[in-house]
Amino acid sequence: MLCTEQSNREMSHVSTTELAFTLAAYDEAAEFIRQRTGLQPKVGLILGSGLGPLAEQVADAIVLPYGEIPHFPVSTVQGHAGRLVIGRLAGQNVCVMQGRFHFYEGYSMQQLTLPVRVMQRLGIETLILTNAAGGVNQTFQVGDLMIIDDHLNLLGMAGANPLRGPNLDTFGVRFPAMNRAYTRSLRQRADAAAADIGIAVQHGVYAALAGPNFETPAEIRYLRTIGADAVGMSTVPEAIVAHHAGMQVLGISTITNICIDQLDFDAEPTHEEVNAAGKIIVPRLIQLLLALLARL
Ligand code: HPA
Nearest to residue 92, comparing CAs of 114, 66, 117, 125? Predict the structure, then answer.
């Protein structure tokens, strides 16, 4: 149940007010999912732009379109399928979000992070977040995979934090620490998995912006100055909510384009370019994720 009078379904998903969900709402969604699968998923995966094909490798899958799950928003972005896939992947019981919600679509922070809390209520302990990102670090190349060591929450600094509003103590404390948001042992296991299968990975800081526009050259130079290695429009709200709720978090960015930091450059980044690069990188990301899952 929402704290507002209207249900999520009845109102437009575009909202200027924060929609705070009750614990009962998260539990209603979790119970709906639980009743449709005999599996107890332990690992959650959220797939970014163009990365959906991984969900097709899930065995014994049950597929739940977001529109069927109580309180779930519906994804509006091209390249995001919008369904939950629960099944077996590399020896693990997984719950895969094929398509995520973004702030730029008009969802509130609470709406776009609702699935993370639902996963937590389902008993999921580890959350793996993937995204498409622009390379800010000048040593990065299109096609690189970057393990997220830390983030810059520029959305949060501008006032859009998913934990804003009444704190639900069942999930976590009012003022959570964020210095250990990205679980060290998971980052180490991702490194070990990458080494095992002979894939090079980068490490770095992911800066989250609202989007939907790509950055100006001045913004890219600014992001580099403040310590960003990659920039994107997702992941950080989900990581914050997951960490707040005591979940272990791993983030992996696929570098789909190199950010343009000079004025009057001929080319410009496009969503099509991001999706096309995602398709090329996806087999390597899938290999890495499968190797990692086998080590959990
Ligand atoms: N900027 C922001 N978000 C992105 C980019 C980018 O260059 N590439 C993929 N997502």
Answer: 125
- Domains with residue ranges and CATH for the chain: 18-295 (3.40.50.1580)
pLDDT greater than 60 at residue 14: no
* Cα separation of the two ends of the chain: 35
Beta bridge partners of 150: 205
Report pLDDT digits (tens) over 39-85. 999 999 998 866 777 888 899 999 999 999 999 987 665 555 689 99
- Distance (angstroms) between ligand 1 centre and the Cα of 133 equals 4
Of 268, 256, 261, 201, residue with least CA distance to 232 = 256
H or E segment and range at residue 231: strand 230-232
| Residues 116, 97: Cα–Cα separation, whole Å | 10
Measured in angstroms, how far is the CA atom of residue 192 from the centroid of ligand 1?
Answer: 27
Q: How many C-beta atoms surround the C-beta of residue 211 within 10 A?
A: 16
DSSP string, 163-183: T-SS--TTT--SS---TT-S-
pTM for the whole structure: 0.91
Average pLDDT, the chain: 89
Instruction: Tell me: pLDDT of 278 over 90.
Output: no
Phi and psi at residue 58, to the nearest 5°: -75, 125
Q: Which residue has the tokens 């099944």?
A: 87
Residue 172 carries which side chain, given as an amino acid letter? G
For residue 132, which atom of ligand 1 is closest to its CA? 9
Residue minimizing CA distance to atom 5 of ligand 1: 134
Nearest-CA residue for atom 2 of ligand 1: 232
Residue 118: burial class (beta carbons within 10 Å; 0-12, 13-18, 19+): buried
